[in-house]
Amino acid sequence: MALATLCGCGDSIDNNPLIREKKTPHGTPLFNEIELKHYAPAFDYALKIAREEVKAITENPEKPTFENTIEALERSGSKLNEVSAIFFNLNECETSDQMQELALEIQPELVAFSNDITLDPKLFERVKTVYENRDSLDLDNEQRMLLEKTYKNFSRSGAALNDADKETYRQLSSELSSLSLQFGQNVLAATNAFAINIPPDQAEKVAELPDFVKEGMAAEAKARGEEGWSVTLQYASMSPFLTYSSNRELKEQLWKKYNSRCLEEGENDNRAIIRRITELRLEIARLLGYDTFADYVLEERMAQSAPTVNDFLDELLTATISYARNDFNTVADYARKSGIYGADFELMPWDWAYFSEKYKNEKYALNEEEIKPYLQLENVKKGIFSLAEKLYGIRFVENPEIEVYHPDVTAYEVFDENNNFIGVLYMDFFPRASKRGGAWMTNFREMYTSKDGEEVRPLVSMCGNFTKPTDTTPSLLTFDEFSTFLHEFGHCLHGLFAQGKYASLTGTNVYRDFVELPSQIMENWATEEEFLDICAVHYQTGEKMPRELIDKIVAAKNYLAAYANVRQLSFGITDMAWHSITAPVDEEVESFEKRVTAEAQILPAVAGTAMSPSFTHIFSGGYAAGYYSYKWSEVLAADGFSLFKEKGIFNRDVAQSFRENILSKGGSEHPMELYVRFRGHKPETKALIDKIIE
Questions:
Q1: Residue 3, pLDDT score
Q2: Which of 6, 191, 176 is nearest to 87 (CA)?
Q3: Which class for 454: exposed (0-12), middle (13-18), buried (19 or more C-beta within 10 A)?
Q4: Alpha carbons 386 and 370: distance in angstroms, whole number
Q5: Does the pLDDT of residue 646 top 70, yes or no?
Q6: DSSP H or E stretch at residue 296
Q7: Of 208, 466, 480, 487, which cross-links 519 as Cys (Cβ 3.0–4.6 Å)?
């Protein structure tokens, strides 16, 4: 069935804003003109063109060469990539029921097309011929890497299978793709399905809350057409309530709903989907000759093997678990001694944010309410732009002529110090029902060099779910949101500084356990006094953050670091457990998760909750057998930032080395070689462990 029949669109493809030539600044998408009806015919057309391009390669009567096979294959499907980037990115941040239905229809078509390429024996024979003759070819480093990755992509996607196994692979990969998409849609629906409204006649329930929390809840209620104050499962809404409210009943209800998303029977139940996804991944791995899906994935990572990852996670857990338990005991003892809930009080997960914030305020005389006025989003953004200018000499210029997909979005042109155009950066900061939770960076267009030598610069997007402005207060960030901004901005720099010939090797197209280095290293500036001096300005008075407050932030930077570390390790352990299975899981999802993470359990376990059913990173977000990479990259970042600390946090020479050896190289060379070239040695876990327990 042609996709176009789904929307009944009879418009000429020449008038389709997804297809026609874009006379816009830098070829940016025509967001103001794109409607749901345009997607299906655009995909139909782009798939047709892509198939013709691949067919021309396969049926080329000339002897296979790097240029007519490998490079031609890399450049094929450019229109399909363009349409897909727009559709799937908007499906994450500006979706609708109809768009999600369309995604479920489109995804199998795209998987089938991808399989048509990698399972085509004639095409694989051409790729294999070039690969086997690689030593006799005059290829540069980038070309050699493209050849190697192309060959491995075919071999790891079933190209060498017999016809029967190829058909099995098609069926398995198609089902897996659809289920992964359904998983994410269920999480979004479950997140949006619950809220707590506190009516005006129960104002005593919000009286204790800081003004910024009450204002945010009032704005949420207004947006939902409700009176009083509302709190949702969106993190930017839920987190402040858990942190500042003493109402245990409401907090328990909110926390349990958040941590049981997609775990309960109903249309958003992800439990059966998890078991089927992991079973499908295991079947695919076995079909391709691997014992587990983790073995299959990790072959193409810095870590290279499941034992290496498990040893890495175990090393960090062993070194920090006692410190994490001390963190918990410190807060639990403080909570009991406070007498707020009586002598027999047991600290539960929904109490953690409240008492850890109170303890931080007492021990360090530091609380979010004191910090937030100095972290107005607009000022933070200017400060981070200034940091990028100090380090890399780039500047950001807002351009209202560039169309955006939502009124909350702002588009910036990015230029270097010689006024050369680097790329476009879209910034989308606030939560909404049509947007998934969390924060992320993505591309509407990757950087590449066209066949005629023209450099095509990237279109980069940064999305977040930060605290919304209210009728009386601008967006004031928590310190975690401030760190998240820096994190995602690091990904953006990775995309913007991309250099190279081939889109599949530029920017963030690197090993999953290397991609978090540029983001993790940026977080270090959040607690640097010199940076806070230029970034943190009171939104009302314009005064810089007082030295006393900066000193408190720096002193408290490792507060609960061991607890946070073990929490992240538990996520990585969960991921590895699901993807190291050697037989389908018949155990209940909740009990499976609690069993495999028992050694990393710090807070009391709560029946009826589990994070796996909403763990989008590994079940719909590309981090399967890869969540450990956050900790892996933290090791790289801790070791790498020590060079900035040694030479100066604004040192242009160090920054230029980081840009040249890490940010601009993408996946054109092995990441360990790039890292050693920048740092001068291989990273060691000691750098991170010392940072956590210092």
A1: 54
A2: 6
A3: exposed
A4: 24
A5: yes
A6: helix 293-298
A7: 487
Comparing CA positions, the residue from 261, 199, 187 lying closest to residue 230 is 199
Q: How far apart are CA 322 and CA 314, in angstroms?
A: 13
Provide the 10 A C-beta neighbour count for residue 50.
21
Q: How many helices (H) and strands (E) does the chain have?
A: 27, 9
Catalytic residue numbers read 488
Residue pLDDT, tens place only, 104-160:
999 999 999 999 999 999 999 999 999 999 999 999 999 999 999 999 999 999 999
Contact 445, 18 (CB under 8 A): no
Mean pLDDT for the chain overall: 95
What pLDDT shows up at residue 287? Answer: 97
**Separation CA 381–CA 199 (nearest Å):** 35
In the beta sheet, which residues pair with residue 412?
Answer: 398, 425
> What is the sign, positive or negative, of the torsion defined by CA atoms of 677, 300, 579, 278?
positive
Model pTM above 0.85: yes
3-state helix, strand, coil in the chain (%, to 5): 60, 5, 35
pLDDT at 630: 93
- Among 488, 511, 369, residue whose Cα is nearest residue 438: 488
Size (the chain), residues: 694
CA atoms 626, 628, 632, 638: torsion sign: positive
* Torsion of Cα atoms, 108 then 114 then 117 then 121, to 10°: -70
**In whole angstroms, what separates CA 323 from the centre of its chain?**
28
Which residue is it, tokens 């062993």? 318
Structural tokens at position 289: 């000759």
CA distances from residue 378 to 208, 384, 469, 476, 537 in whole angstroms, order as listed: 28, 10, 11, 9, 10
Q: Taking a C-beta distance cutoff of 8 angstroms, is the pair 427, 466 a contact?
A: no
- Whole-angstrom CA distances from 60 to 36, 127, 179, 418, 650 are 37, 13, 37, 44, 53
300, two tokens: 């193409």
For 447, residues 6+ apart whose C-beta sits below 8 A from its C-beta are 423, 455, 456, 457, 458, 495, 498, 499, 500, 503, 506, 507
pLDDT band at 11 (very low <50, low <70, confident <90, very high): low
Q: What percent of the chain has pLDDT over 90?
A: 91
β-pairing, 421-428 vs 459-463, is parallel
pLDDT tens-digit series, residues 479-534: 999 999 999 999 999 999 999 999 999 999 999 899 999 999 999 999 998 999 88
Cβ(372)–Cβ(366) below 8 Å = no
pLDDT for 694: 75
**pLDDT single digits (tens) 161-211:** 999 999 999 999 999 999 999 999 999 999 999 999 999 999 999 999 999
Measured between alpha carbons, how far is residue 137 from residues 61, 449, 624 in Å?
Answer: 20, 21, 36
End-to-end alpha carbon distance in the chain = 61
Quickly tell me which residue has 């042109």 as its tokens.
413
Q: Which residues, in sequence order, are CB contacts of 421 under 8 Å at separation 6+?
A: 26, 413, 414, 415, 457
Local structure of 667: helix, strand or coil: coil
Tokens of 170: 């098609």
